[in-house]
Design brief:
single chain; 11 strands; membrane; P-loop_NTPase; ATP binding; ATP-binding; 281 residues; Rossmann fold
Length: 281
């Protein structure tokens, strides 16, 4: 049984211009101890699909699926109270732009301890000690001192580490990382990716990595889903994807890598109708 299994997921938004379909009938599955990359350019529906799993889309969104199960539990029919017991504990998500995702009005210690109190029942000294342990685990050595810091007093890389600490606080079975290295410099990007993969291996989590960076895919993923304008274009193990892509959109993405530059000009992904790989819905 897959850790997470989704069949025929669609997400539409009611806008002033009419109904907009951001995700159109995709299937997604991930197993424990597996790293799945969902890749595609901005606007391809990668984040929206995973926010649907988390139940974090606005009221203007309509989510439908033939199946959305976590460890065999139906997330679509589950009541809100039962779903809250899973989301944030067994399924956790690291969001884009960590400085914006953290609450600027509360210290990072408060925000980590809030997660521990809500899902693990830890309070007082026990929560504080666990928060320090988590900060040290994600590479913030002066965790005890940092508990009293506000997000604006920390660098982007440190805030991202705090977000990771919050996400893994309850030892989730599935971790979703949405563009976890956005707006970080190259050195910090490498550190964050190495940290996520090491935590995934150490804790045996399933990891979904949302990215537009094919280099991140090559470095971290076991299996890859390629999306374009809400559609799944291709799904393959990472080696097959790079060596023998089946979708012309995947080939276009790979051709746009920096190493394929001709002179001073990079190839571009033109806006034309792409066909999914054979057998992909």
């Amino acid at each position: 049984m897959a850790l997470l299994e989704i069949k025929n997921l669609s997400v539409s938004f009611d806008t002033s211009a009419g109904l907009f379909k951001a995700v159109d009938g995709i299937d997604v599955s991930v197993d424990a101890r597996e790293v799945l990359a969902i890749v595609g350019e901005s606007g391809s529906g990668k984040s929206v699909a995973m926010l649907a799993v988390m139940g974090l889309l606005p009221s203007t969104a309509t989510v439908t699926a033939d199946k959305m199960e976590f460890e065999g539990l139906d997330l679509l029919s589950m009541n809100a109270a039962d779903k809250r017991k899973i989301i944030g504990k067994d399924i956790a998500m690291i969001f884009q732009e960590p400085v914006a995702s953290l609450n600027p009005c509360f210290t990072v210690g408060f925000q980590i301890e809030e997660v521990l109190g809500m899902h693990m029942g830890l309070n007082g000294k026990a929560a504080r000690d666990r928060a320090v342990e988590l900060l040290q685990l994600v590479g913030i050595s002066d965790g005890a001192e940092r508990l009293g810091a506000f997000p604006h007093q920390m660098s982007g890389g440190q805030c991202q580490r705090v977000m990771i600490a919050m996400a893994i606080a309850c030892n989730p079975k599935l971790l979703i990382a949405d563009e976890p290295t956005t707006a970080l410099d190259v050195t910090i990007q490498k550190q964050i990716l190495d940290l996520l993969v090491s935590l995934q291996v150490e804790h045996g989590m399933g990891l979904i990595m949302i990215t537009h960076d094919m280099g991140v895919v090559a470095e971290t993923a076991d299996r890859v889903i390629v999306q374009y304008k809400g559609h799944k274009m291709e799904e393959a193990d990472v080696l097959s994807l790079f060596e023998n892509p089946q979708s012309n959109y995947t080939r276009a993405l790979l051709s746009a890598l920096p190493e394929n530059a001709v002179g001073d000009r990079l190839p571009t992904v033109s806006d034309f109708v792409f066909e999914p790989a054979p057998g992909v819905n």
